[in-house]
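The data are quoted verbatim for completeness:
=====
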Amino acid sequence: MKIAFHGAARTVTGSKHLISLTNGKRILLDCGMFQGMGRETDAMNEEFGFDAASVTHVILSHAHIDHSGLIPLLVKRGFKGTIYCTPATKDLTEILLLDSAKIQEDDTKFTNKKLRKEGKPEITPLYTIDDAKKSINALKKVNYNTWFQVDDNVEVYFTDAGHIIGSAAVHLRITENGKTTQITFSGDIGRYNDAILRSPDVFPQADYILMESTYGSTLHAEAAPSDDLLIKYIHDTCKVKKGKLIIPAFSVGRTQELLYALNRAELDGKLPKVDIFVDSPLSREATDVVRHHPETFNKTVKKLLERDDDPFDFPGLHYISTVDESKALNFREAPCVIISASGMAEAGRVKHHIANNINDSRNTILIVGYCEPQSLGGRLMRGAKEVSIYGTRYEVRADVGVIRSMSAHGDYEDLSQWLSCQDPREVKKLFLVHGEYEVQTIFRNWLLKKGFQDIEIPERHSEVGLG
């Protein structure tokens, strides 16, 4: 048995890990899209590093595009198996893949318009809406906390990872030549004091662990003050400077966390009177999916539901649906808040909002989650004075703010707590994935002190034998 790391290897995007069995079967853990990798992004997404048609099964940890976004390309290139995931993940993945395909088609049209003017060859999207629709048929729902069989000698078990609704840590029980090996893949690990979701579950003892390490060297600030900081940014930008607050936010997870925080502030009388626009049809759909899965909520949210039937809605909230409505926000003079995807500001409508507002010092761009360093959001976080958006250079005159504690990824204490149910002496090897190499090196040293003896930080496309 071997495992190869074809994505999220020494980087925080493109999750893809391929387990090859001695009988020829191949199990792919996630099939994520690379995002925010600069000029290399498109080429990295074109190259799987394996034959898509040779994959037997896909196990999907959660719906985020950096974990699910290349599923349509996998199917387009010959995958004919089943993709297993939790019920909420299936519901979210369906809308996310369709949205991803539409963004690609729209961005391709936009880019090709410029290329034609320059007399250069046109490009094609990785996949189309039709490709995404075909791949959705392969998704199969499986509940948490029950072993299910995907092959004669392969069983899978999902536990709640607490990252976004439906997110799961994946546990495999694989029997070969009379020997059973247990492999755990963390997916993305959430926080133990998340505002909305339940905490991550404990899980069975594993022989091998693939573990995310996004914030392996970071201790988040307490979650509560981030709500107050969010309200301060709204007040300072919209009330004091009379400007616009642009918040890049992933449509799944971060947008709902923002809406929940704003709803609580409104209930407590702390939310400034200002129009708040969610400019993403996907965000409306995703929020509806979240509403329909209250089984994923923690006790605090369930308690709130006793006095507020919708914890994601409040006076002054408006959803933008059409492109014309989105464009109209650019001509709006009155102060407002615009929440729009993507969270790294690498695609979608938020890029246009940033382009149209970045030159005005009255405005603020507020980063509320992890951004790949090379992404537009990452460059703004690092204090870039000038950025390129769709090939045009813009001077950064707007303020750039960051709320680091608003993250769906656990910090090193959360990651350590997730591992605390394991006996380090029984873990033969622990692989750190989904992290930047410098952070992973720090986290590796931390885990060695915790008693884990064999910790590897694999490179992209590297392959390791198990057992």
